[in-house]
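Running log. JK asked me to keep both predictions on one page so they can be read side by side. First protein, sequence followed by its tokens:
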Amino acid sequence: MRDLNRYRRRARAAFTMIEIAICIAIVAFAMVAILGVLPAGLLVQKSNREDTLVSMDGAFFIEAIRSGSRGLVDLTNSVDWIQLTNRGMSLGLVTNFSGGNQLLGGGQIIGLLSTPRYFVAANGRCVTNLAGPVRAKIHALSGSAIERSPSLKDFSFSYILESEIVPTFSVPPAYTNFTGTDVAGNTNIIEARSNLWAQANRLAGDCYELRITMRWPVRPDNTVGGEKQTFRALLTGGMVTNTDVLRVNGQNLQWSYYFFQPSMYGH
């Protein structure tokens, strides 16, 4: 009899509807909190991925411009257009691979991205890129191989690359200080600093500063959002200019392409 009563009490023990409702409410509250955090986590993951792709591509273009690369034959698959205004005059040029304006290879792309921000022409006139840096719309070179497919290009991550190259050379103050009390009348110091100044003038033509700015996201009208990364590098070596045909609006134009030669110095 005692065992039967114990069995009956055990059989009647269970969760009430109120307890079950409280458990469901706790689980629902936790799920709402998780779903609220999930979009923020996805946004952080997306931002980290974009920063990583841009960092890898930035290092790639720095080295490509620094070494004057001309054999990047597949670079045309990732570049939609290049825009610059510098041909000894104010001239706008937009190259579109899908239209009548075409680039033939990766060497031309690097040659255009290496166009100086300003330079001195043969007639002594300073030629300036009035429209600002050279700009190009580029689909990420790094990342998944699937995104490199031409059919998925519109869905891949892209950015606007801006390239600026300016001559630069830092001269120590001692090179030009001829007014100090230790210099006056000391012909040895004057001669030594004059030699240093002459050497600096010879090297000044082989030193450049490269600044690459990458902006994203790119909107359909080619305007960009507020994200950006900037890369800087000092370039040393000679710069050579090649003239080749560039097809623009159905016409063949002679265009100048610039390439750095790290092992060659012209001054």
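And the second, directly underneath as requested:
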Amino acid sequence: MRKNPLLGRRILMTRAREQSAESTLLFEKLGAEVIVFPTIEIVPPLRWDALDQAVDRLRTYDWIIFTSANGVHFFWQRLKKRKRRLPPSLKVCAIGPATAKALKGKGVPVHYVPKKYIAEAVLQGFEEVDLRGKRILLARARIARDVLPKGLRKMGAKLDVVETYRTVKPRAGGRKLRRLLAEEKIDVITFTSSSTVNHFVDLLKKENIKTALKGVSIACIGPVTARTAKARGLKVVVQPDQYTIPGLAQAIAKYFIPLKPRRTRF
């Protein structure tokens, strides 16, 4: 791969602002100019009751599953507030390296990380474990797919699903987004979750999607996000084999390598 394969390319990043610093640096090292335009905000649950109750009875669980680093962050807030710790008997599953890294940063050993960072891969791994009668705590966002809960219960697990955070749409930004697209200076838009896609499209309101995104490449971090994008009328041209930000960055770089580099706009 040539040096600075994204030189002169302008990337619109839609993930939450607090998650964008490391991602921005990664794309900038590849030569890109990054515009951080969050279409989601990560916020706490409206009520802590369910999570607090789960924290207070952690010793009754056999497994705890974290689906994101966001979940780890807010879960630990409540652990500290309740003056609790994860019991050593509790096994921990993390979906994805970023989630595993967040847990290891808390000094927590991770017992299982699926090969692919989606719910279906978690279920495949647990097929080798007898879950009948096992108690599992699933810490995740308020809005999420039902694939994992349904699959775990079908395997015989006694499952508690607790909301650890919410993803909400920023109150403003539609006008700025339409202006950025109208200037035709965006080369690629990255989406890292279904929420980023849905809120992005909602911000455009009644704009014609194909017209608004003419000349813009769409990159999605994984198959779930890509399915959502396609369902909302977006044409996805980049999807990495590894469902991570580094994987996404490399896939975007490879996509643009055959194309003539643009003059930098800096």
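Observation for JK regarding the second prediction: The mean pLDDT is 91.
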